[in-house]
Amino acid sequence: MTALAWFLPSACSQAAEADRFLPGDTEIIVHVNLRQALDSDLVKKYALEQIKTQLKQSAELQAVLTAAGVDPIKDITSLTLAAPGKISADSGLVIVRGNFDADKFHKAAADFADKNPESLKIHKSDHGPLYEGKDKNKGKPVFATLLSQGTLVFSPSRKLVLDAVARNGDKKPAPLNKKLQTLVGAMDGKQGIWIAALPSKELKAELAKNPQGKNIANKLQTLSGGITIAQDAKAEIRIQTSDAKAALEIRRLLEVGKALLIFRVADNEVYGPLLADIVSGIKIRTDKGAVNIEAVVTAAQIEQGLKSKPKP
Predict the structure, then answer these.
(1) Residue 246: pLDDT band by 50, 70, 90 thresholds?
(2) Contacts of 226 (CB under 8 A, 6+ apart)
(3) Of 119, 142, 166, which marks where a domain is finished?
(4) Would 173 be classed as within a structural domain?
(5) Alpha-carbon gap, residue 180 to 28, rounded angstroms
(6) Which of these three, 111, 145, 166, is where a domain ends?
(7) What is the DSSP string of 137-178?
(8) pLDDT tens readout for residues 247-259
């Protein structure tokens, strides 16, 4: 089996697609399939109630969500984070897919802006309201707009949001790097989380400064992987390099890191044995120029962790 075949979606899976609103300079994509994750047995049993409780912690947030007619648990289906290779304070775009009532959404935002003018400004535009939110502490703006009843986008860059607006009527695929497009097509769209990334020039330059990374820095090609959440949680990560020697070097470094991590977590008085068991189960393999990493957290291990949790 070739390295590519190892990671290509199986016959029963569904190939992922690049969201058409992704910026053209995107080199990192993180996609969270909230529907798959929230509907999984694992999340329903161990996390769903805690998530609901956390959402209710902020009375102000709850009031805004209720007024906007948005139930995050039911109405949001996915989140996609896109970033360029060189990440900065004003880069990145988040695409939220779901089911939104546009009238309720805009009215709730207008009411909030009237009461909190220092936190939210509303700009008029041809496509509809463009929202500018500000963090009270940092003061950095975040721009957002509702493209349709099914799509909300936001970013620290006003330009990126308006670029998404400009593509709203265009059904063409996102103008992504071809290598990244191919990588996305190899992802399993049914996974709870998947990531596809190209190593940036900045990352390679930093690795090259390290004695342990200088021989592999320029041989890194892609990073991809995902987490499947069902009765257990299974993570698969793939690092693609240009040759087998580089892959073996990365595997060696990862094995050393794994051993050190086992030693480190074992010191935890409460969860040490459990964490050491999870880390010990991580499998690291090479296939020609690829490094494949697999990790599993079982329901039994989660049960063990909950039983070990100190009582308040």
Answers:
(1) very high
(2) 187, 188, 191, 192, 193, 194, 195, 235, 236
(3) 166
(4) no
(5) 9
(6) 166
(7) TT--EEEEEEEETTEEEEES-HHHHHHHHHTTT--SPP---H
(8) 999 999 999 999 9
